[in-house]
Write the structure tokens for this entry.
Amino acid sequence: MGKRNQEHSAKNLPEKRFVTKTIDGNRKKEGIDAQMHWIIDKMLKYASTMDTIPDPEIEELWRQFEDVPMNPITEEIEEDFLHFPIGTSREEIWHWFDEQHSMCIHYLLYEIG
């Protein structure tokens, strides 16, 4: 293919990029549902101030984690959850919850759900 044909073909290809917009002062990715916006906002808020996430919010995330599909053989998640990509092990996510909650993973496992 000649140079002219390559340039013409490239012009017809759709651009692939993440589009962001500002809503109420928060940057959000278009196409992410409202629940993910809430999670991302909370994580960014606490990450930017270096505060810990309050236990009630960690407990809400734990309840949401219960609905994430999990491969019963590999014990890896089958869809993205928070900052964990598909294929992350249950144990790795449990470690994250253990570090975040003041009463550790035992409380989440046996008292919350």
